[in-house]
Amino acid sequence: MTFRARIGIAALAAVPIAVLVLFFLYPVSGMVGRGLWPDGKFQPGAVLSVLARDRVHRVLWFTVWSAGAATVLSVVLGVPVAFVLHRLRFPGIGLLRSLVVLPFVLPTVVVGVAFRHLIAPSGPLGGLHLDGTAVAIVAALVFFNVSVVVRTVGAFWEGLDPRAEEAAATLGAGPFRVFTTVTLPGLLPGIVSAATVVFLFCSTAFGVVLTMGGLRYANVETEIYLLTTQELDLSGAAALSLLQLVVIVVLLAFSARTRRAPAVARATVRARRPRGRDAGLLLWTGAVVAFLLAPLASLVLASVHGSAGWSLDHYRALETTGQGNALLVPVTTALWTSLRIAVVAAALALVLGCAVAFLVSRRWRTPVGRRLSATFDGAFMLPLGVSAVTLGFGFLITLDHPPLDLRASPMLVPIAQAMVALPLVVRTVAPVLLSIDERQREAAASLGAGPLRVLLAVDLPVAWRALLAATGFAFAVSLGEFGATSFLARDDNPTLPVVIYQLISHPGEVNFAMAMAASVVLAGATAVVMLLVERLRIGSVGAF
C-alpha cells in the first residue's frame, strides 16, 4: 500500500472516529464519571450503596426474570417459524416474512399503546385481566423479539448442508431423531446467539416497560429514566447505567463468540414445497403471525371507532393539543418534526456507517491491518452495547457546557439518533462489500481507475441495494427512537414518540384516543419503510 493510500485511509477513518469519541465515548464516560466521582472524588462505594437499595434489588430481579422469560418464549415461538420461512417455499411467504420482521422496528411506544388497548378492561382481551401485569410486559417483549430469532436461526438453517440430514434418514433415523442429532447441533450456535441478543434487547427495553409497567413494574432502563427526570438522583442513575453497561458488553462479547463457534458444513440450500408432515409447523407459524397482528389490528380498529361509532374524529384531533392542553404543540407538528429529524439522522448514520463499512470490509494483507480492522469494527458496535437511555443521559450531563454546549442546538437529537442507528447501517452494508471479489477492484485499478472510480464502478453496483436498505433501517429507527430522545427533546419541539407518551400520561379519554391515532400514523410510516426495505431482501436483524 502506497503512502498516499495510507493517508487517504487515515483521513477516511478520522471522521467517524472523531464522531464516536465526541458523541459516544465522551457522553458515556461522563455518565460513568458521575457514578464513580459523584462529588468530584473517586467513590466506588457510591455505586455499591445504590446497588444495596431494596428498590434497586426489585428492579434488577424484574429485569432479569422478565428478560429471561421473554427470551425463552421468543426462542420457542421463533425456531419453528424460522424453518417455515427459510426452508419452505409457498405463495405469500414474502408477505409473511415482512409481517414477522415488522414488530422489531416498530416504535416501542406504539407497541405499548397497542398492548394497553388490547388488554384493557374495555379491550378485546379485557376478560383475561392482564392489564397492569408482568405477563403483559413479557408478551410485549416477545412480540418485539420473535423476529430476531426467526432471522438469526433462519440464516443458519438456510446454510445447513442437507446431505447430513439425508444420510441420517437413510440410516433409518426418524424426523425427530434427525432433528435432535443432526439439525439441532448445527443450529445451536445460531440459537444461542439469537437468545443472547434477545436477552440483551429485553433487558434494555424502555418504551414498552415505561408505558405498560406504570408505578408497579420497572426495569433498569425505566429506573434510570425515573431517577433522572423525577427524583434528580443523577448519581443513582449513573450507578445503574454503569452496571448495565458492564453486563451488556459481556453479553455482546458472548454473542460474538457464539457466532464464531464452529458449525457443521454450510451450503446454499434451495427451499422446498411444504409436505404433509409440515402441517403442524404451518399452523404454528399462522398462530405466531396472528399473535403479532392482534395488537396492531386492535389499535387500528380502535383508532377509527369512538363512542359515536366509526369515524376519523381521533385523527382530526391530532391537529389539536389534546384534552386539557396536554401538549404544547399539536401532534401533526410533532410528526413533521420527527420526519425532519429522521431524515437528518438517517443521512448522518449512512455517511458514517458507509465509511466504517468500507474500511472494515477491506481485505488487509498484514496481521496488524486485520487486527486494526477488527478493533475498528468492534468500536463502532459499541453503541449497540449501550442503551439509548444511557446514551441520552450521557448527552444530558456532558454536552451542556463549553466547549460542547449543544443544549439549544437542533442537531442534538439527530446526532443521538444517528449513533443509535449507526451499528445497524454498518452491519447492513459491510457484509455486502465484503462479498465483492477483490480481483474486480484490482482489475479496475490496473486499467487506470482511481480509488473513487473503482468505488463507483465496482462497489456501488453491488452495494446499492444494501445502501437503500441501510437508509430505510436508519430512518425507521430514528422515526421511532424514544429512549435517548425522551431526555433530549424539548417540550416545545417534541418528536412523535415523545408526544404519544405525553398523551397517555395525561388523563382523559380524548388524550388516549389521540395517542392511538398517532400510534397508527407512526406505525404506518415505519411499516411502509420496512416493507420497501424487505423487498430489497437485505437482512440485518440477525446480523448482530
UniProtKB/TrEMBL annotation:
InterPro entries, alphabetized: MetI-like, MetI-like_sf
Any GO BP: transmembrane transport
SUPFAM superfamilies attached to this UniProt entry: MetI-like (SSF161098)
Residue span(s) of domain ABC transmembrane type-1: 60-253, 335-533
Subcellular location: Cell inner membrane; Cell membrane
Residue ranges crossing the lipid bilayer per the database entry: 7-28, 59-83, 95-115, 135-157, 187-214, 234-256, 281-304, 339-360, 380-399, 411-434, 454-477, 512-533
UniProt keyword list: Cell inner membrane, Cell membrane, Membrane, Transmembrane, Transmembrane helix, Transport
Chief localization: membrane
Recorded GO CC terms: plasma membrane
Membrane topology: Multi-pass membrane protein
Family classification: Belongs to the binding-protein-dependent transport system permease family.
Protein name: Iron ABC transporter permease
Organism: Nocardioides pocheonensis
